[in-house]
Specification:
Largest sheet: none
Number of strands: 0
Number of domains: 2
Bound molecules: iron/sulfur cluster
CATH superfamily of the largest domain: Alpha-helical ferredoxin
CATH topology of the largest domain: Fumarate Reductase Iron-sulfur Protein, Chain B, domain 2
Oligomer: single chain
Radius of gyration: 19 Å
Length: 183
């Protein structure tokens, strides 16, 4: 069996990949399929055909909205949403993330903050994300930022968790990473 199929099957929910009958219900249900380089149905066919590199370097799984429509409608009970997240994880592990989507950087910024202070301060998160992607774009966001500040929707203060809560959160994240996630 192809190594990628084995890896996916080892992830809870991923074992369903063998059961797919290629009916296309997931693709027909997916609100973002038209923006994906390969549709949800195609991803499964490609993985089974040994096209792992093409799958993991595509933008498809990064455009998944986690709406679960594919999962609730699949006639074979395949958890396609979990599969999308498993592919994201494998893509990062194999350094095959695509530059055609900024979602991996957004996830990375999010987890950097959670690991370091236990929270995601809106202002810090926005600034960090734009520094990592397109600093000039941050300038265009200044009016939005000021408006959010004015209406109290974001705060300048980066509150930290209490030390004990921070320690507990890090223990949970370390455990999640040990079970196959990524920090
Ligand atoms: S709906 Fe299920 S069985 Fe049909 S193509 Fe998608 S994953 Fe395969
Ligand atoms: S969970 Fe993701 S792949 Fe499934 S239908 Fe929603 S957006 Fe598409």
């Amino acid at each position: 069996m192809d190594k990628l199929v084995e890896e996916i099957c080892a992830i809870p929910g991923g074992e369903g990949i063998r059961l797919c009958i290629q009916c296309g219900t997931c693709t027909a249900s997916c609100p973002n399929a038209s923006r994906m380089e390969h549709t949800p149905r195609e991803l499964i066919a490609m993985v089974r055909a040994g096209m792992g590199k093409e799958v993991l370097s595509s933008n498809s799984m990064w455009l998944c909205l986690s709406c679960y429509l594919c999962t609730v409608r699949c006639p074979r009970g395949i958890k396609q949403t979990d599969l999308m997240h498993a592919l994201e994880c494998l893509a990062v592990r194999q350094h095959l993330s695509t530059a055609r989507t900024r979602t991996p950087i957004m996830y990375r910024s999010f987890s950097d903050f959670v690991y370091s202070i236990g929270r995601v301060p809106e202002m810090g998160f926005m600034i960090w994300f734009y520094l990592l992607t397109n600093p000039l774009r941050a300038l265009r966001m200044i009016p939005v930022m000021l408006s959010l500040l004015k209406h109290g929707r974001i705060s300048l203060k980066a509150r930290r968790l209490r030390p004990e809560a921070e320690r507990q959160l890090k223990a949970i994240l370390d455990r999640a990473e040990a079970l196959g996630g990524l920090s």
